[in-house]
Amino acid sequence: MADLSVTVAGVTFKNPIIPASGTFGFGREYEDLYPLSLLGGISTKGTTLDPKDGNPPPRIAETPAGMLNSVGLQNPGIDAFIRDALPYLQEQDTVIIANVAGSTVEDCVEIARRLENTKVHMLELNISCPNVKEGGVAFGTSCESAGAITAAVRKATTKPLMVKLSPNVTSITDIAKSVEAAGADAVSLINTLLGMRIDIESKRPILKNNVGGLSGPAVFPVAVRMVWQVANAVSIPVVGMGGVASGKDAIEMMMAGAQAVQVGAAIFHDPFAPVRIIREMNEWLDAHAYSSVSQIIGRVEPW
Amino acid sequence: MSYFQGNDVILHKENLAKNIYRLVIAAPDIAAFAKAGQFVHVTVPGYFLRRPISLCEADSSRGTITLVYEIRGEGTKALARLNEGETLDVMGPLGHGFTLDPGKKVIVVGGGIGVPPLLQAVKFYGANAKAILGFRDASAVILEEDFRRYGAETIVCTDNGTRGQKGFVTDALAGMVTKEKPDYLFACGPKVMLEKVAKIAADQKIECEVSLEERMGCGVGACLVCACRLKRTEEEKEYYGHVCKDGPVFPAKEVVF
Ligand SMILES: Cc1cc2nc3c(=O)[nH]c(=O)nc-3n(C[C@H](O)[C@H](O)[C@H](O)COP(=O)(O)OP(=O)(O)OC[C@H]3O[C@@H](n4cnc5c(N)ncnc54)[C@H](O)[C@@H]3O)c2cc1C
Ligand SMILES: Cc1cc2nc3c(=O)[nH]c(=O)nc-3n(C[C@H](O)[C@H](O)[C@H](O)COP(=O)(O)O)c2cc1C
Q1: Chosen domain end from B51, B71, B94
Q2: Ligand 1 atom at minimal distance to the Cα of residue B20
Q3: Chain B: nearest CA to A60, how far in angstroms?
Q4: Chain A residue whose CA is closest to B4
Q5: Residues A241/A250, Cβ–Cβ less than 8 Å
């Protein structure tokens, strides 16, 4: 058995596999299938300052090897998260990453303040949600605003701060560099890629929001490429995600430079995906005689 | 909530009507915990998202569940290619079902592929249940004998009168409700039908529960995609609940149609 533990921004994870924000709720929904203590960590559903109702349905469309979603950040608000979800999560012996989003810098700063004295281990500032008008994507697509919001939240928290990047930009490395310069301790990527499906019989988009975020195996090569580029451009750790569905995918993501890996849409296909991936990684590392998963991080040998 | 996921063997496959199939699956864990009106989430080979299908029957002593589904798109078409002896990846039982209240009288109202999810409830209520089942025409009628076998007086309606009464289930219901004075109305079918049943129930002051459909992701309440508009009380403001976790069966008075 290889040592699967990894450290990201000073936080130690028992293994590198983390269910991605928005695909695992606040954890409880999967407790029937496996103890959450098997997971490296959990990235919780994106939470805003005030409760948010989300977009009208349909909010999901199937695609070849993936899906589109347009949930629109439906969530109970930060106070309900702290009051109702956190007490359970902090008993689960896993790293808690609070994913936060807001339509203004002030909102994000206030959320960070409210989380300051909680047992959350890390903040993941989502500046990349494509599904709400001011859901952060406005911050995530320009270097200036990405840097400004990162700097403001940085001042409001002593917890490790990870910033989640949008792939819907011309140069993700430039955004990554500006959030690093503004004080981010880590970056996570990728959020979903903006997409669209149309029912050709009714001529109507399947999503009521018309467009939504693409995720699942379909986006995997794009995610690997972006993780590789960003890992080479910044010196803070990179947490990789986008389409990971197997232990081999997770190994590939880590070879590209990811320090840890989040798993999202794959859970909808196989609810055991995170624990299966941990097992498969272990088997692969053993078969290749690695004693520690950290030995493969960033070890791609580019041509 | 207690649910399971595994590869379960298809014991029996049967074509009930054009494009409608019945599958009996060996799934003892699911059968042991299942309640009428709950659903399972099945993987179709070659497709990314699972498909939600209501439990038509669950037999804990035999360790089997029965699903009845209609081919409506790519996934259900692929599902229909699976045969007896093959396995199906099934996750369930999921969601909340119908109220099971011993000794009470119910009328169940189903339209088309909305008929199967009502059978397990009728199994519970037996002769205290009456069923009104609506179909396009005689060739689309399914499960009529099963509803009778479990003790429910059963009326079939077809749009064109080729079987049973001619007309809509809601026409038949209006008469039956005033005569029978049931404690509950349970309905599953097209949204327009559900809305009319809910209206009849509200007018007659009868508790009514409806089973809703929405496109789904995780099936367990984690991803929040299967949103439906709800309202707890007249005074409270509307909000989005979720079909997979809060439903699929909802009190009709809370549903915003
Ligand atoms: C709680 C619940 C219980 C259901 N019970 C039954 C049942 O007992 N028998 C039955 O025949 N059908 C039932 N349905 C409907 C069934 O899930 C859809 O007909 C099926 O998902 C269509 O899949 P497809 O691949 O053939 O269609 P496609 O149009 O190719 O599917 C594309 C995507 O849209 C989704 N989708 C399309 N139509 C629906 C729909 N009406 N409801 C939900 N998702 C949809 C699919 O799941 C898939 O993700 C139920 C739906 C829900 C929500
Ligand atoms: C239904 C759904 C909801 C999501 N909600 C959030 C969210 O609230 N905050 C966030 O940062 N990312 C959210 N995401 C994006 C995922 O966390 C992840 O970045 C993306 O789906 C790519 O990974 P995957 O291909 O493994 O799913 C959501 C994704 C899905 C599918």
Answers
A1: B94
A2: 11
A3: 6
A4: A33
A5: no
Whether residue B206 sits in one domain with residue B111:
yes
Give me the domain span that covers residue A178.
6-53+73-192+214-296
Angle at the Cα of A61 from the Cα atoms of A55 and A62, rounded to 5 degrees: 155
- Say whether pLDDT at A132 is over 80: no
The domain spanning residue B37 has which CATH number? 2.40.30.10
Same domain, B126 and B227: no
Can A108 be counted among the known catalytic residues?
A: no
Smallest CA–CA distance, residue B91 to chain A, in Å, is 9
Buried b / exposed e over B95-104, threshold 16 CB at 10 Å, is bbbbbeeeee
Task: Point out the domain boundary residue: B45, B73, B94.
Answer: B94
Phi, psi values for residue B183, rounded to 5°:
-80, -30
How far does residue A134's CA lie from ligand 2's centre (Å)? 17
- Pick A60's closest partner by Cβ from B3, B4, B217: B217
Residues of chain B with pLDDT under 50: none
B83 lies in which domain range?
A: 4-94
Please count the structural domains in chain B.
Answer: 3
For ligand 2, is residue A217 a contact (CB within 6 Å)?
no
- A21 C-beta closer than 6 A to ligand 2: yes
A286 in a structural domain: yes
**Is residue A48 in contact with ligand 2, taking CB distance under 6 Å?**
no
Q: Is A144 on the interface with B (CB under 8 A)?
A: no
Tokens of residue A213, six digits: 């975020």
Q: Please tell me the pTM assigned to this model.
A: 0.96
Q: Is the CB of A265 under 6 A from ligand 2?
A: yes
Residue A58 falls inside a structural domain:
no
Q: Which helix (H) or strand (E) holds A193?
A: strand A193-195
Query: Is A208 a domain residue?
Result: no
Condensed to tens digits (0 to 9), the pLDDT of residues A242-267 reads: 999 999 999 999 999 999 999 999 99
- Cβ contact A143:A165 at 8 Å: no
**What's the whole-number mean pLDDT along residues A57-84?**
97
